[in-house]
Specification:
This protein is mostly beta strands. Helix content is about 0%, strand content about 65%. The protein has strands at about 1-5, 10-15, 15-25, 25-40, 45-55, 55-65, 70-80, 85-90, 100-105, 115-120, 125-130, 145-150, 155-160. It is globular.
């Protein structure tokens, strides 16, 4: 595990996972990681080929070569002017049927039942709440951005790509 502190941001790197992302000591996200899932939703195992560190940047170079995958990708984390940006770029080097290849974002358990604002890719907005219980059903769809508050910290999470 490698703890990182960049200005007001702190987080832990646990192998390929960026965990316990906190702004000024308040955990705003539980985890972000890149996943590759096959057509049956089985999760391929990432292998870290190397890690690049900068003063306020981190790049995890990953490969997935099980379950029929042959994918290489880079997860990049950057801090800049109060924002933390996590991006994932990947290339499949062979034909591979996937149900998901991208970033997965997990929220802290303590947000269960708290208000959540959803901006949709189609342009609409929706007021809802984080689910109170784990469910097999996705609570919201067509997500372009999420916004919530935790311990006085206003969080805006924007998705692109």
């Amino acid at each position: 595990m490698a703890a990182m502190t960049w200005g007001d941001w702190t987080f832990d790197r646990r192998a390929d996972e960026i965990a316990d992302l906190a702004w000024r000591g308040v955990v705003v996200l539980r985890s972000i990681r890149a996943v590759v899932r096959d057509a049956d939703w089985a999760t391929a195992t990432p292998v870290i080929s190397h890690v690049d560190h900068g003063p306020e940047s981190l790049a995890l170079h990953l490969t997935w070569t099980d379950l029929g995958a042959d994918i290489a990708g880079v997860v990049t984390v950057r801090a800049d002017d109060g924002a933390l940006t996590v991006s994932f770029d990947a290339e499949s080097r062979a034909a591979f049927r996937t149900n998901r290849a991208g970033l997965v974002v997990l929220h802290p358990h303590r947000l269960a039942g708290t208000p959540l604002q959803v901006a949709h890719a189609s342009g609409g907005r929706e007021a809802t709440a984080f689910p109170r219980a784990v469910s097999a059903h996705q609570p919201v769809f067509d997500i372009a951005a999420l916004a919530w508050a935790v311990d006085g910290v206003e969080v805006d999470l924007v998705f692109r790509g």
